[in-house]
Model the fold of this input.
Amino acid sequence: MPLETLDRTPPPFFKQGPSALSRLVVFSALALLLMVADARFKLVQPLRAAIATVLYPAQWLALQPVQMIENGTGYLTDLKTARKTEEAARRKLAAQSERAGQVEQLQLENERLRQLLGLRGRLTVPAAAAQVLYDATDPFSRRVVIDKGQLNGVQPGSPVMDESGVLGQVTRVYPFVSEVTLLIDRDQVIPVMNARTGQRAVAYGDATPRAGLLELRYMPVGEDVREGDELVTSGIDGVYPPGLPVAKVAAVDRRSDSSFARIYCMPLAQVQGVTYVMVLQPVTDQLRLAGVGPSASPASAPASAASAAPAASAPAAKAKPATPASAASKAGKPPRTGTPPKPQGGKP
Done:
C-alpha cells in the first residue's frame, strides 16, 4: 500500500479542539460576566433558586447522617448533664429538707418566746412579680427598668429581689414602669449582717465601673470576717426585711498600714441578664399599715388636738365673773367657806 493513501488526520476520538489557554480565557471571561451580571442586574437569581430547589432533596439526604450523629451526641451529652443535675438537685433537696425541719422547730420556739415576752410578731412581706424590660441608658449607673409602675402599686424605695437574693431597690416610679438601681451601683448602700457572727455592717456598691462587686467599708482589721461568709439584710434601715440573702464574702484584704480591712463581696442575685424579679413592700409601709412605729403618732395627733380644742374653748366661751374665793386665792388669802372657823378658847 502506498504511503500517500494513508490518512494522516487523527480520528474524531482523538481530536484536540481549542487549546487549554484559550478555554481558560473563555471560561474566565464567562465567569466574570456572570458575576457582574448577578451583582448588577440579578440575572442569575432565578437560575440559582431553581438549582437550589432541585438540589434540596439531595442536600437533605446528604445532611441526614450528620444530623443523626449530632442529635445522638447531643442526646448523650444532655443525658449525662441531666443525671449530674439530678444528683445535685437530690443532694440539695436533702440538705434543704434537713434545714427545713430545723427551721420549723426554730420558728415554733421563736413564736413561743415572742408570746412569752409579749413581743410583736414578724410582719408578712407582700410581693408582686415583675419582668425586666431593658437596662437603663445611663452608662455610669447600673439600673434596669421593670414593667410594673405606680398603677400597679409600686412605691419608691421598694426592695427588689430574684430567686437568689436581693437585687436592688426601686428609685424611680412612673405610671407604667419603674427604675430599679442594682446593689452594685456606686451610689447604692444596704445594711447587712454576717449570718455566721451576727456582726452588722454596711455594704456599698463598688465604685469601679462594671466591677459587679460590693464592698464592706469601715470594718476593723481584727473583725472576724472570712471568705465564704454569707451576708443577709439586717432590717435596721426600715426598707429591706431582715434575713434576705445579699452576698458572699469573696476576698478579705487586711493591710498593716490601715486600721480598716478591705472586704469585697459577690452578690448572690443575678445582676446581669436577669429576667423576672419580685418587688417587695418596704418595711416602713407595713408598720404604718399595722398602726405601729413613728408613722402612727401623727395620725393620733390631730384627734388629740381636736379633742383638746373644745375643752380649751369651753372656758373661754363660758367665762364667769370672779368669785370671792377665786379673788382671795389670787390675793394669797385663804378662801372663805360656808362655815366660819370657830375661835380658839372662846365663845362664838
Remarks:
- The chain has a mean pLDDT of 78.
- Residues 45-117 form the longest helix (73 residues).
- The longest strand covers residues 127-135.
- DSSP finds five helices and twelve strands in the chain.
